[in-house]
Specification:
The protein has a domain at about 125-213: Tetratricopeptide repeat domain (Serine Threonine Protein Phosphatase 5, Tetratricopeptide repeat), CATH 1.25.40. Helices cover about 80% and strands about 0% of the residues. It is built from 12 helices and no strands. The protein starts with 6 loop residues before the first helix and ends with a helix.
């Protein structure tokens, strides 16, 4: 249920598991994740703190606390939690992923890229991390490298429409309208009702027509 995005139903199941003392630490941690996804940040922090009290040498609840603090815009506390998680386990790809998000929030693209690279060094086949890395290097103007990351995302998950959209934006910025239109059409197959994409398509067709005249 959790991985299907049915967080309220999943939370009820985890509460039952906690009441029955079933896989207690994991159940408490996942209940915190459900509360996080539902926007109940204080409840989420309470559950993560409870897990930390029971299992202080498990990095995941520290990492999950950082996710709450990032959502709340409390970047100082987020960084403390990420540092704690890395001190416990310096080889956890998800911690570096959230460290990358933290640095993006701080607008430090170089350190964000570095964090995502560390995550990908541990596990190269992470669509979300590859997507974020592509966005970060694209924002630095490294378009060829960015397209490479987005292509890796598509190879892993052909239905990840954000990869097509970001490639489209790169080709628009470099005025390669044929390629932009190619990837925009792939994006629109997955997002037929996207008004911004529809408007962009009209603009690209106009630009291509004007360039022929």
């Amino acid at each position: 249920l959790y991985f299907e995005g049915r967080y309220r139903e999943a939370a009820d199941i985890f509460r039952e598991c906690i009441a029955k003392q079933l896989e207690l630490n994991s159940s408490i941690n996942y209940l915190g994740c459900c509360e996080l996804q539902l926007g109940n940040f204080e409840q989420a922090l309470g559950w993560f703190d409870k897990v930390i009290g029971r299992a202080p040498h498990w990095e995941r609840p520290y990492m999950n606390k950082s996710r709450v603090f990032i959502k709340q815009g409390n970047l100082i506390e987020a960084k403390k939690c990420l540092d704690d998680a890395l001190q416990i386990n310096p080889e956890h790809e998800d911690v570096y992923y959230y460290l990358g998000i933290y640095y993006e929030k701080c607008d430090d693209l170089f350190k964000a890229e570095e964090a995502y690279n560390k995550s990908l060094d541990i596990d190269a086949n992470q669509p979300e991390t590859l997507l974020n890395q592509g966005i970060v290097v694209s924002r630095q103007g490294k378009y060829v490298e960015a397209i490479g990351y987005f292509q890796k995302v598509i190879a892993l998950d052909p239905n990840e429409s954000d990869a097509y959209w970001n490639i489209t934006q790169i080709y628009v910025s470099t005025k390669d309208y044929n390629q932009a239109l190619l990837y925009l059409d792939k994006y629109m197959i997955l997002n037929m009702d996207d008004k911004e994409a529809q408007e962009l398509r009209v603009t690209l067709e106009r630009e291509m027509t004007d360039s022929r005249n």
